Every structure is written in C-alpha cells, then in structure tokens.
Amino acid sequence: MATSKNLRAVLEYLGEPYTVKVIDLEDCAYRRLNDKYDIEISGCNRKTKPFHVYVWNIQNGDGIGAQIIERSGAIKGLPALKTVLDEYVQKYSG
Q: What is the pTM of this model?
C-alpha cells in the first residue's frame, strides 16, 4: 500500500504500535488497544489538514457493530496529537 509522505512522518513520530489502516476509503493511522477499543487518526495524508481522533468500541466487531465513543477534532501539530493519544491510551487501555 502506498502511503503519503505525511502519513509516514506521523507514524514515525508516534512509533509502534501505530500502523496504517484504510477506514472509509482513507489511509489512517491506527492503533488497536485491546479487544474492546481501538483508535483511528484521520487527516494524516496532508500536512495542512488537522488531525481527527476517534476511539471506537469494537466489542461487537470492528465493522458495522463498532461505535465511536470519544472523539477529538481540529488537532494541529504532532505534539498536540501525541498528547491527545496518550490521554486516550491511558483511559482505554486498562
């Protein structure tokens, strides 16, 4: 899968375990937290776009049964993105 230069930079900044996953026809940064939650980060393909982060409850499957339980939008810059992600990881990893 060919990913944008900016998405590769986002993944490099965040490090493992973030990967690429196609969600709603968009290459997104993605992290599965556990069997109950995962995180989607959209807006990674262009440097000028803000990031949008979604925490999904995937207990009923990661497709149609999944539900967004928390979101943050219009995040500008990688340090701000990392702060939001760290909060969500701490809150939902337990």
A: 0.91
Asked if residue 66 lies in contact with residue 56, where contact means CB atoms within 8 angstroms, the answer is yes
Q: How many residues does the chain have?
A: 94
Find out whether 47 and 10 touch, Cβ atoms under 8 Å: no
CA 79 – CA 7 distance, rounded (Å): 15
The residue type of 19 is T
- Look at residue 1 and tell me whether its pLDDT is greater than 80: no
pLDDT of residue 2: 63
Looking at residue 60, the DSSP 8-state letter turns out to be: T
Write the pLDDT tens digit of every residue in 31-88.
999 999 999 999 998 888 899 999 999 988 777 778 999 999 999 999 999 999 999 9
Exposure string over 8-24, b if 16+ CB within 10 A, otherwise e: eebbeebeeebebbebe
Question: Is residue 34 within 8 Å of 17, Cβ to Cβ?
Answer: no
The whole-angstrom separation of Cα 12 and Cα 41 is 14
